[in-house]
Specification:
Distance between the termini: 12 Å
Strand content: 15-25%
Family: Belongs to the glucosamine/galactosamine-6-phosphate isomerase family. NagB subfamily.
CATH architecture: 3-Layer(aba) Sandwich
CATH class: Alpha Beta
Largest sheet: 7 strands, parallel
Number of domains: 1
Bound molecules: 2-amino-2-deoxy-6-O-phosphono-alpha-D-glucopyranose
Shape: globular
Number of strands: 10
Structural class: alpha/beta
Protein name: Glucosamine-6-phosphate deaminase
Radius of gyration: 17 Å
Oligomer: single chain
EC number: 3.5.99.6
Keywords: Carbohydrate metabolism, Hydrolase
Pathway: Amino-sugar metabolism; N-acetylneuraminate degradation; D-fructose 6-phosphate from N-acetylneuraminate: step 5/5
Helix content: 25-40%
Length: about 240
């Protein structure tokens, strides 16, 4: 793992955007793994600025999003499809058919999960997977548990995750109870991973991710076993593991 620490969130957003932009400049048909939540909003704005300045094109790029709520209409402002359209896709030249978000309203969710993994297998691997982290160490929506899923699957969200995400809704009762998420194996197939962690309240879970034991109880700790992970943070946390 490589850890880059930033003094503020704006510098972090710019550096994270630059890494994604460099990937697409070097490989215009790159496959990008995208994330949602509050964390990537600023870096998506930086990508849009660079696109509008004519300095990058996503015309040949493809994307696969990590996850989607089950049961929210795609038109709901908090559906992750809608999030991606309004924060990024509608403002750059990516082709809609090249963007993939799991369908949380599929009649057969298990078939949707298998199909998502199949598409990723056929069109991947992901060149660069962007990740945020939940306060409990989840990545995508892979919640802490005694065992984790390899492939894309339907997950029951933990109460703490619903509580954390209720800030985006009017009331906790509106936060979906389930989601479809790439599994840990799906995420770990990415050639490179960019983990972005913002805010002092995430310092402890980032420390556990970087320096703690590899455990399914902190799903992000499995990233210690991936050969190419870049962590960008504004937290005051050091990488203490040495070989
Ligand atoms: N499923 C998403 C994750 O992909 C995200 O990384 C995490 C943290 O979100 P935030 O960036 O808003 O703290 O929780 C969400 O629920």
């Amino acid at each position: 793992m490589i850890l880059h620490k930033f003094k503020n969130s704006a510098d972090l957003d710019r550096a994270a955007a630059d890494l994604i932009i460099s990937m697409v400049r070097a490989k215009p048909n790159a496959v990008l793994g995208m994330a949602t939540g509050g964390t990537p909003v600023g870096l998506y704005q930086e990508i849009v600025k660079t696109y509008k300045a004519g300095l990058v094109s996503f015309a040949s790029a493809k994307t696969f999003n990590l996850d989607e709520y089950v049961g929210l209409p795609v038109t709901h402002k908090e559906s992750y499809r809608n999030f991606m359209q309004s924060n990024l896709f509608d403002h750059i030249d990516i082709k809609r058919e090249n963007t993939n978000v799991p369908d949380g309203n599929a009649a057969d969710v298990d078939a949707e999960c298998r199909n998502y993994d199949k598409m990723m297998f056929e069109q991947g691997p992901v060149d660069l997977q962007l990740l945020g982290i939940g306060g409990n160490g989840h990545i995508g929506f892979n919640e802490p548990d005694t065992q984790l899923s390899r492939g894309t699957y339907k997950v029951t969200l933990k109460q703490e995750t619903r509580e954390a995400n209720k800030r985006f809704f009017n009331h906790i009762d509106e936060v979906p109870t389930h989601a479809v998420t790439m599994g840990m194996g799906t995420i770990m197939q990415a050639k490179a991973i960019l983990l972005v962690v913002k805010g002092a309240e995430k310092a402890a879970i980032l420390d556990a991710t970087l320096n703690g034991p590899i455990t399914t109880l902190v799903p992000a700790s499995l990233l210690q076993t991936h050969p190419r992970v870049i962590v960008m943070t504004d937290c005051d946390v050091d990488y203490k593991v040495s070989f």
